[in-house]
Design a protein that fits this description.
The structure is a homodimer of 430-residue chains. Chain A is an alpha/beta fold and 430 residues long. Chain A has three domains: 2-171, Molybdenum Cofactor Biosythetic Enzyme, Chain A (3-Layer(aba) Sandwich), CATH 3.40.980; 179-254, 2-Layer Sandwich (Alpha-Beta Plaits), CATH 3.30.70; 260-416, Alpha-Beta Complex (Maf protein), CATH 3.90.950.20. In chain A, 39% of the residues lie in helices and 23% in strands. Chain A is built from 15 helices and 17 strands. The first copy, chain A, has helices spanning 10-13, 20-31, 46-57, 77-85, 93-105, 153-171, 191-197, 199-203, 230-247, 260-271, 285-291, 309-316, 320-323, 334-348, 395-416, and strands spanning 2-8, 35-42, 62-66, 89-91, 119-121, 125-127, 136-141, 144-149, 179-186, 209-215, 218-226, 252-254, 275-279, 300-306, 352-358, 372-379, 385-390. A six-stranded mixed sheet of chain A has the order 2-1-3-8-7-6, with helices on both faces. In chain A, strands 14-13-15-16-17 form a five-stranded mixed sheet. The radius of gyration of chain A is 26 Å and the shape is globular. At the A-B interface, helix 1, helix 2, strand 2, helix 3 and strand 10 of A face helix 2, strand 2, helix 3, helix 7 and strand 10 of B.
Chain lengths: 430, 430
């Protein structure tokens, strides 16, 4: 089965956004055992889109489209595909109801252009949109398969995973042995270091396959195998997973695609432990990561963003002579990271207190270099640990890496405690 | 001048990396006034690459290739292009010297395959590689222009900027007028509502052009025109910009691509005003957005994440009977949003205090629906305003939209103050 991905949108040709949809779909199709031979990007122009469709029909069995199904006049994917296939369009009743309800629920008037989002090609299967208003579609004709998905990744990705993939498995991949995959997640280690540790397994791979998977800020390995059924697949994958975990026990935190903060929230909520945080240079990024996980309310109570020295003193009683004066260690120091972590823990009466203080840049601070960051972990009845980080990158990268570092350290601390159940995130989780 | 970008590399088709090269080149070409009509990705396969080249030759004047010019067996871009053009290849002497010197300098043996990196198509202009070993090339034939660049961005980007672009300006663009663009940024209005307000301008556009630009959580319009020089371009663009601003004065916040928080930070820093925040459901996201802007330290001092009712009482003295009890309004209420904003403002002694309290989901809370959020703005010596939001989407979307809403409201408040200089973000900013 050969596939072509056609991304529709002039903003791609103007270089305003990167084509992450093509990447997502390519990964997904590879996992299904489908070869992607071409990716094409074309603008919001009916003639050129039609040309791209015709070329793709000549060289692929499965054509996947993203973009061009929104409410604006530039959105023309369904209309163009219908024209190529010689079919008419109609308004999908269920999709139209969803669009109308969206506006009525908010007491807003629906502008006419929103009607387009419910367009459907005659004979196609609608793919409902759970995170937006534009309905997708799937269509089989003369041994070819057409999937039309929205442009915005947060609409396209769930629609592919929940709607298009099952449709493909049912209609296009009936003769294939299904491909089963697991995503192994790692923290506290970089991508090339991980690859180096696994180099023998990677070089000698046959079945299952091992693919490093580069996603911003995360380190992931995908292991895949074709098998007649799930039980046999999981057995094969489990053996390889065990080998990998044995090589990296201090870094593999899950065998499903979840962020590290989810594991931390689950472990702590189950163990009845709580955490608070005092953030300086990260300005709330750590706490917003923790609270992005549903259920965090049972283990995270609150914390403080003490961005200025004054606020470190006022909100957390950091002694002035730690911060200012010729002999002061300064805000970016082990001493202050330690005090912040302990003070916020005591103020909120939580089991753990976390702190981050550093120089995110671009300006240096206190004559300390950009990327110097101290992270602290205080523990009820236990020792406070402070780690010094020397991070590279821009302001945002340094902030993100600081947050990931402290989450990793907290994860390691939880593993060391005997009173916390620390199952691998994923299949083992209840 | 029509261009097509062809990225060569099976790792792209497997979804292992994203095609950032296409984005970079598209932006660069747009700035040169060259229209990119297609982007194609093809694997390390000579037959399919040849097909892609032939299709591109039929529809573009400028063909840019990235990737497939390294030392491995899979690298075949130059060979394939030469075959299509009916030309031979030779070894470029200067490039070969550079490759040999690289190995001698390191006391390493040069493997034979490295010789490929110095390959040159007969009659082409070599483009030296300052950050790697693979030499690029530029070639003009029968009114078409071919540029071959390396795959790794850190080699491709400087080679384009320093070598390919001057070559294009000299050989291909002697008659073109450059394209000038401005990005107009809007807040407090949705994409389709924006388009509806501008529908006449959009429908009747000729020159400059108007393109809505969809980026997650942001609403942007790009206006573009070709002109012989910058002064004339800015005059044309300025007239259209003024028309657009007149239609949307309460929403257009910048004419360069910056986030709203940057404008807020700049205005407040210039006016010597400060702000603090108390966040519940957003857990630090608002404060991390403000602190993502360099220079925020002069206007943002700190704040509190009061995720639990206990912390709202403990950290900000919210009265218990506001939060609990049969007659209590509850944490998600106008009353509590008001108190939080005022309390954090007084605690930190800032000019503005912001608050966010709501139900981010997926679980409802206090028998209130997911998406119900109250945002508060307290002002020194002024009135506290609270807004009720009814947001849709998942947990992360609701949190992001809450933050964007309160930033918008703060922006509007600053505009109303007479003591704050509120220039449009962008050209007018110092």
């Amino acid at each position: 089965m050969k596939a072509e991905i056609i991304a529709v949108g002039t903003e791609l040709l103007l270089g305003q956004i990167v084509n992450s949809n093509a990447r997502f779909l390519s990964l997904e199709l590879a996992a299904l055992g489908i070869d992607v031979y071409f990716q094409t990007v074309v603008g919001d122009n009916p003639a050129r889109l039609q040309e791209a469709v015709e070329i793709a029909r000549g060289r692929a069995d499965i054509l996947l489209f993203t973009g061009g199904i929104g409410p604006t006049e530039d959105d023309l994917t369904k209309e163009t595909l219908a024209a190529v296939l010689g079919r008419d369009l109609h308004t999908d009743r269920i999709a139209m109801d969803q669009v109308e309800r969206f506006f009525t629920d908010r007491g807003r008037e629906m502008t006419e252009n929103n009607r387009k989002q419910a367009l459907m090609i005659d004979g196609a299967t609608p793919l409902p949109n759970g995170t937006g208003l534009a309905v997708g579609l799937a269509l089989a004709e003369n041994g070819r398969f057409y999937i039309v998905l929205p442009g915005p990744p947060r609409e396209m990705e769930p629609m592919f995973t929940e709607q298009a993939k099952p449709w493909l498995l049912q209609h296009a991949l009936t003769d294939e042995m299904p491909l089963y995959s697991k995503m192994l997640k790692f923290a506290g280690i970089g991508e090339s270091q991980l690859e180096t540790r696994l180099i023998d397994l990677i070089r000698n791979q046959t079945d299952p396959t091992i693919a490093p998977y580069a996603k911003e800020g995360e380190v992931t390995i995908r292991i895949s195998t074709k098998a007649p059924g799930e039980r046999e697949a999981m057995e094969k994958l489990g053996k390889l997973q065990d080998k990998i975990q044995a090589l990296l026990p201090e870094h593999m935190y899950a065998d499903i695609d979840v962020p590290l903060e989810k594991i931390i929230v689950d472990w702590m909520a189950d163990a009845g432990l709580t955490v608070s945080a005092a953030e300086s240079c990260t300005g709330g990024l750590l706490m917003s990561s923790i609270t992005s996980v549903p259920g965090s309310a049972s283990m995270f109570l609150g914390g403080v963003v003490c961005y200025s020295n004054e606020m470190k003193q006022k909100l957390l009683n950091v002694p002035k002579d730690y911060l200012e004066g010729p002999d002061a260690p300064g805000a970016v120091s082990r001493e202050v990271a330690e005090v912040l972590a302990e003070q916020v823990r005591m103020l909120t009466d939580t089991d753990f207190g976390l702190s981050i203080t550093g120089v995110a840049g671009p300006a240096y601070s206190e004559r300390k270099p950009v990327g110097l960051v101290y992270i602290g972990i205080a523990e009820r009845g236990g020792r406070t640990e402070v780690f010094e980080l020397n991070l590279s990158g821009n302001r945002e990268t340094i902030r993100i890496r600081s947050v990931k570092s402290i989450l990793y350290r907290l994860w390691r601390r939880l593993e060391e405690r005997e009173d916390v159940e620390t199952p691998l995130g994923g299949s083992d989780l209840a």
